[in-house]
Design goal:
single chain; Rossmann fold; 2 domains; 8 helices; binds zinc ion
């Protein structure tokens, strides 16, 4: 059984989170958040967890080898449990060094295929979306809304989540100066990853993220040749 590994690239507001959620719900894919994995290791006080805790407490970035070790262990565990199906990596790889290490790791797992997916959205559209974005403050919901009047993602009740009734909040960095800075850093980061994948001959699937979620989802399914549902 093959296991496909997906990496979603795209600027803030391009709908990576919503698309991941859709794939998890509709296709039963698993999502691996390296942030959650770190917290889990710390909570279980594993050897990796102790090291991560040390990095965090000394204000350093967690090393690539630690992150890779965690991801590798997770993949091996899932394989041993006979768990199948596709996995979306969330928050990883962050940098070329991690992408490179992941590439080498996947070469060891012969049955795993990597799909970098790029959600393409113009800077203008990112700014337009983020300036009106509000998020459900309930941590286990976190549904995203748009406050634009013409948007299909407006909440039914002003600043209240349709899903769970919690108040909606604006992210502090969803304001214009911060958005420009986030876009600048996104472009730099994304370009270095795209250069890397180009160099190693890894195709990148591009999706038009300006379209409604349903269409983006259908484009993904069509382009990767995955059966629907
Ligand atoms: Zn909610």
């Amino acid at each position: 059984m093959n296991r496909d590994i997906f990496i979603f690239l795209g600027p803030p507001g391009s709908g990576k989170g919503s698309l991941s959620q859709r794939c998890v719900e509709k296709l039963g894919w698993q999502q691996l958040s390296t942030g959650n994995l770190c917290r889990d290791h710390i909570a279980r006080e594993t050897e990796i967890g102790t090291q991560i805790d040390f990095f965090i407490k000394s204000g350093k970035l967690i090393s690539d080898s630690l992150i890779l070790g965690m991801v590798q262990e997770w993949l091996a565990e899932k394989a041993a449990q006979g768990s199948q199906g596709s996995v979306i990596f969330d928050g990883f790889p962050r940098a070329v060094s991690q992408a490179h290490a992941l590439h080498e790791l996947l070469a060891e797992f012969k049955d795993m295929q990597l799909y970098p997916i790029r959600l393409v959205l113009s800077d203008e559209e990112v700014i337009y979306r983020l300036l009106a974005r509000s998020i459900c403050q309930n941590n286990s919901c976190q549904r995203v809304y748009s406050l634009h009047k013409q948007s299909a993602h407006q909440p039914a009740q002003e600043m209240i989540c349709d899903e769970c009734g919690s108040p909606l909040v604006r992210r502090f960095d969803d304001e214009e100066t911060a958005i420009h800075e986030r876009l600048r850093s996104h472009h730099e980061h994304e370009q270095s990853l795209l250069d890397f994948y180009h160099e190693v001959g890894q195709p990148v699937v591009e999706l038009n993220a300006r379209a409604p979620l349903n269409e983006v989802y259908n484009e993904l399914i069509t382009k990767i040749g995955h059966p629907r549902e």
